[in-house]
Amino acid sequence: MLTLLLIVLAIAGLLVVMRREAGATPALALLGVLGLVGVVFGAPVIGTLLLIGAAAVAVAGLPALRSKWLTPRIFATFKKVAPKVSATERTALEAGSVSWDGELFSGKPQWQSLLDFKDDGLSDEEQAFLDNQCSKAAGMCNAWDIARERADLPQALWDFLKKEGFFGMIIPKEYGGLGFSAKAQSMVLQKLSANETLMVTVGVPNSLGPGELLLKYGTQEQKDHYLPRLADGREIPCFGLTGPRAGSDATSLPDTGVVCKQVINGEEVVGVRLNFEKRWITLAPIATVVGLAFRLFDPENLLGEEEDRGITLALIPRDTQGMDIGRRHHPIGSPFMNGPIKGKDVFVPLDTIIGGPDMIGQGWRMLVECLSIGRCITLPSGATGTARYALGWSGGFTRVRRQFNVPVAEMEGVQEPLARMASLAYISAATVYQTANLIDHGEKPAVPSAILKSQLTEFQRVLLSDAMDVHGGKAVTLGPRNYLGIGYSANPVAITVEGANIMTRNLMIFGQGAIRCHPYVLEELAAKDANDVKAFDKAFFGHAGLIFGNAARAFTLGFGLGKPSVPFSGPAVGYAQDIARLSAGFGLCADAAMASLGSTLKKREMLSARLGDILSNLYLASMVLKQWHTGNKVEGEEALLHYSMQFLLNRAEQAFVEIFDNLPNRALGKVLNVVVMPTGRRWNKPHDDLARDIAQRVSTQSALRSKLLTNTWDKDDGTESNPLARYNALLKEYDRAEAIYRTVNKAYAKGELPQTALHPEARVEAALEKGLINEEDAAFMRTFEAEVLEMLTVDDFAYDAFANDKSTLIDHNAAPAKASPQAETSVK
């Protein structure tokens, strides 16, 4: 009995010590005391084993002892197996900052640190711009006209965007810009996502491009000259990074600049001779100034002793001799300005280098630091805005579209995608807003930028597919009435640009996060590079304590023991506590993968992707909880919270299972499974009841629908028709219409109306004639049905409308040509 008691006490005590990461001394004391109790009171075997364990802890855990023999051996092995970090990788790792992503990597997230990022909302000026200028800009767009008729935004819209400062949102007011917060910039792009070409056109100059690079690194002369001109649209910028042989691997760009001298106006000038070929450059066809990334060489040592000076950035006027610019690519689905730029022997003076000569060779660092913010805002905001519009259109369409005498929104096959769309829009809005709030507090979220870009654009892909499905023929027939199809076809652009999602998911999220966000890995690598065994000892054994701590936390929390205190209330409490459980499991699995695979983990991209999936889903779930905690709640939102959290946590657990099943060390996979999920999986996919409730609310005039569509263009106040406003107007009248539908259809089913009354309009007139409804109701239904029919109608065109070369048209219904008399005779 004493033996069993000592075993239980030892296990329980060690779990407590490990959970608290209390170090070797408490563990040594615990095992020593229990061992002595066993030896003295009649359990010598277990007592001896416990004392041996205490001795092992002392030798391996006490710094004074381990530093003599253990640490040097581990350090020697670590230097052999640790991954080599290239200069470009180190630059990327050191860019940006670590905030909530680091908490999730720790395995013991401190929720208050997230809540401490207070949200002051938008300023009155920012909200007014969103309500007025953004609404007017969105109201000037017709997707068909932009994509198929003119392949450009209307001139009046270009003029308006320049006049109102849309291209200067990130430029401070002292330079003539709007000086907007990151949250305001995000909300603007979400509202402009009513049209994807408009969103891209405004988003790119305010993202990775000359404006942000000049703000952070430009010389004062460059700022004074360019920033006011960029802010008011006198200059249209583009940035040339990618090319035929340098896409995702931007550090391998083959474009070169050579330092040389050239005589200009009789004076010898030191400058750079550039040769480059860029493709897929947004705004290039119309840009007046080109930001350019290239590899700089100084073979004559005009600037110093180094020949290879590294990646450098320059700002080059469009009319510079030797630059070929103006042709266009044809991006799938959307005609936003995009094209190639070429240059042969283009000479530019040194003062075109962004930041001047002092920033030579700093281009890669400049790019990744800017990208960490831009990738958090532009494409994620566009995806979020698209999600909200698609949800609004789909909810309205499925409510007014009737089949089998009921709205299709009442059919469970339609309710399932509607609920999923609502959840993805809800998660996206919370994540992009709260991450922008982090940026407004000075954070530069490098790893979250990869999470947002890949996850939210993938959400957009799923959501647009769902929207197409529930719209059916309405959305697959292109024309001026189709508000969805062109945006759907343009979605691959968001998936591909600013770091293709395949690369981002498989390489960047965990690959960068494992070193950048981990509490100890960066310190261990730094100690290795410095050959500092003392620093390594501190980092490595702190790391070991973290591993034991995460194992203990994951295991005990898996049984529901020792749940952490969290600063939430209501339904958020349980979710926050389970994110903490999965965070501990994630930290343990991350360390297990790195330890068991070492440098080969870089090549195990599928495992790396799954680890990234866990981190991504925990990050998204955390942002949803913060938004729920700080935001105003409406009726029906709790169901959406439950659906969204269960959706994300189910995906996180699925990624865990796939890691357990695919680790090369099968024994390690099985052990991790037992430790992280001792009682099995906890989260199923969201229940059908939640889906039914959410679908009902987003397809009717409800508080939840209104909240999800806040700050979209939802007024019929533009020069172009607004389908969202029209659906909202129909939903406002829907309850009255539904009551009349029931009366009329019931009478028809009973045979009280003529069997020839097959159309709703005919049944309304027949019901009026029979006295089943009054003239007021009939007049209401005539107007209502006319608008419904307009929203269901698709476009048709002349037979020859789509042929650019009319001479190639085939008249398939032409009368057969008559054979000549000679031919008829010869046949006979």
UniProtKB/TrEMBL annotation:
Entry keywords, A to Z: FAD, Flavoprotein, Membrane, Oxidoreductase, Transmembrane, Transmembrane helix
Give the EC number(s) under which this enzyme is classified: 1.3.8.7, 1.3.8.8
Catalytic EC class:
oxidoreductase
Ranges for domain Acyl-CoA dehydrogenase C-terminal bacterial-type: 515-797
InterPro entries in the record: Acyl-CoA_dehydrogenase, Acyl-CoA_Oxase/DH_mid-dom, Acyl-CoA_Oxase/DH_mid-dom_sf, AcylCo_DH-like_C, AcylCo_DH/oxidase_C, AcylCoA_DH/ox_N, AcylCoA_DH/ox_N_sf, AcylCoA_DH/oxidase_NM_dom_sf
Q: Which residues form the Acyl-CoA dehydrogenase/oxidase N-terminal domain?
A: 138-233
The UniProt record lists the Acyl-CoA dehydrogenase/oxidase C-terminal domain at 361-501
Spell out the CDD domains in the cross-references.
ACAD
- Cofactors: FAD
User: Which Pfam family, any one of them, does this sequence belong to?
Assistant: Acyl-CoA_dh_N
Which residue ranges run through the membrane? Answer: 39-65
Q: In which pathway does it act?
A: Lipid metabolism; fatty acid beta-oxidation
Catalytic activity reported: a long-chain 2,3-saturated fatty acyl-CoA + oxidized [electron-transfer flavoprotein] + H(+) = a long-chain (2E)-enoyl-CoA + reduced [electron-transfer flavoprotein]; a medium-chain 2,3-saturated fatty acyl-CoA + oxidized [electron-transfer flavoprotein] + H(+) = a medium-chain (2E)-enoyl-CoA + reduced [electron-transfer flavoprotein]
Gene3D superfamilies per UniProt: Acyl-CoA dehydrogenase/oxidase, N-terminal domain, Butyryl-CoA Dehydrogenase, subunit A, domain 2, Butyryl-CoA Dehydrogenase, subunit A, domain 3
Residue ranges constituting the Acyl-CoA oxidase/dehydrogenase middle domain according to the UniProt record: 238-337
* Keyword tRNA-binding assigned: no
Family assignment from sequence similarity? Belongs to the acyl-CoA dehydrogenase family.
PANTHER family, sorted: ACYL-COENZYME A DEHYDROGENASE, MEDIUM-CHAIN SPECIFIC ACYL-COA DEHYDROGENASE, MITOCHONDRIAL-RELATED
UniProt-recorded name of the protein: Acyl-coenzyme A dehydrogenase
